[in-house]
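Entry for the shared binder. Reason: the reviewer on the internal report wants the predicted structure included alongside the sequence.
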Amino acid sequence: MINSKSRSIMRCIILLILIPPQLFFPALIAAAQPPDEPAVLPFISSDQVTIRKAGTHRDNTLSGVIEDMSGQNIVLRRGGNTVDILKLREVVSVRFHKSPEFNDGLRKLESRDWQSALTALQSAEATEPRAWAVREIQASEAVALRSLGRFDECLAMVEKIFNDDPDTRHLVELPLVWDERLPPGQRFAGTSADLKSRSVLRQLTAASALLHDPQQEAAAAATLTSVRRTPRIRIQELADVQLWRRSLLRPAELQPGEIERWTQRARDLDRRMRSGPEFLIGRALLAEHDYDKAATSLLWMPLLEPLDPATTAASLSDAVTALQLAGRTAEAAQFRIELEALSK
């Protein structure tokens, strides 16, 4: 969605400005990587996990068979009775055997051919025997469904993953509302009944959708506060960040130091969870007329971790505005071209 030259330049800027050293090598999971080439080695040794221990500067690639990928761990059997339990925070990259349909689905996601991607991924899911790999396919299906605007189906897919893996990292695929300015057809539509759903993920998503509604704001905020008490850390984090949006509904009421607290909180999050928070920080900085910093935060989503197309376009549009107001007209013009291409 951003051309390679722009992406390379701005990614370097954002990495240097926003990402602390310990997050320079985040877990790059297979669903976010380019598709693998067909496996040359026998399946028994086709999986590879590259890790980097905290405090070191050397990668270590381990080969074997991934037996599980759930929560924040990867279980890798490396032959005989040698089994390693690897922490995702130490993982640099993961490569594993994928079916042709899975690879095709990932390629179609990369080219933003959402419907074709979904069709290929559904075929891959139907024939995948590994439970953990099914979840990886389902996460990619959730991305396609969210991009197609099929938000209820996206939520149902993430719920399916969550029911199988309560500590899943794939909660980032939830169709949360980050921008109340989007037309109704471009965001999840929650109901007051959803706030009392048995599904904590539906409660969270519905609360995000209703938070900007004056008649529902109090109930939605109460639901987010309740959801924030769940024992699942990733759900806690998302509910907490969603509550920031109340301040954005009335930017004049932003408290001194509030944006700084948000910024520090975002830096503590996993990289894949930062798009929404950085978007909110960018909007707050824009309201405070800190245009250079606003542009940096607003470019996080389109350059590093895109969400659904409409929200990503909104983030890029706000970034263009911030660049213009900062007097960085050449950069603003460059990204305006990208925005026009994205909107076609």
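Summary line for the report: The chain has 14 helices and five strands.
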